[in-house]
């Protein structure tokens, strides 16, 4: 399983990740991403992995990364 990790110390709330991953993320009132399922590191379904990788690559604050379970 792949999860999207948000580094809250680096995130500056630009909202680009929520624009690139609307199925997974929403924005709070200040533009910071929140997972639609309420988890701190939401699971990324297989079909959304390319979009999640784009969000990681394009995050201006370098606050995102994909965590892949190697089990």
Keywords, please?
Ferredoxin; three-stranded antiparallel sheet; single chain; Alpha-Beta Plaits; 2 helices; alpha+beta
What name does the CATH topology carry? Alpha-Beta Plaits
Give the SSE string: EHEEEHE
Mean pLDDT, as a whole number? Answer: 95
Shape verdict: globular
Structural class by SSE content:
alpha+beta
| Assembly classification | single chain
* Number of E-type strands: 5
CATH class: Alpha Beta
CATH architectural group: 2-Layer Sandwich
The helix content, as a percent range, equals 10-25%
Note the main sheet: 3 strands, antiparallel
List the helices and strands and how they pair.
Blueprint lengths: L1 E5 L9 H5 L4 E3 L5 E3 L7 E2 L4 H10 L5 E5 L3
Antiparallel strand pairs: 1-4, 1-5, 2-3
Structural features, described:
- The protein has a single domain (2-68), classed as Alpha-Beta Plaits.
- The strands form 2 sheets. The chain has a 3-stranded antiparallel β-sheet, with helices on one face. A two-stranded antiparallel sheet has the order 2-3.
- With 71 residues, the protein is an alpha+beta fold.
- The chain is built from 2 helices and 5 strands; from the N terminus they run βαβββαβ.
- This is Ferredoxin.
Nutshell version of this structure?
This is Ferredoxin. The protein is of the alpha+beta class and 71 residues long.
């Amino acid at each position: 399983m792949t999860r999207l990790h948000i580094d809250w110390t680096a995130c500056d709330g630009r909202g680009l990740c929520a624009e690139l991953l609307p199925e997974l993320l929403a924005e709070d009132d200040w533009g910071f991403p929140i997972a639609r399922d309420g988890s701190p590191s939401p699971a990324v379904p297989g079909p959304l992995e390319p979009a999640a990788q784009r969000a990681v690559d394009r995050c201006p604050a370098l606050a995102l990364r994909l965590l892949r379970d190697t089990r």
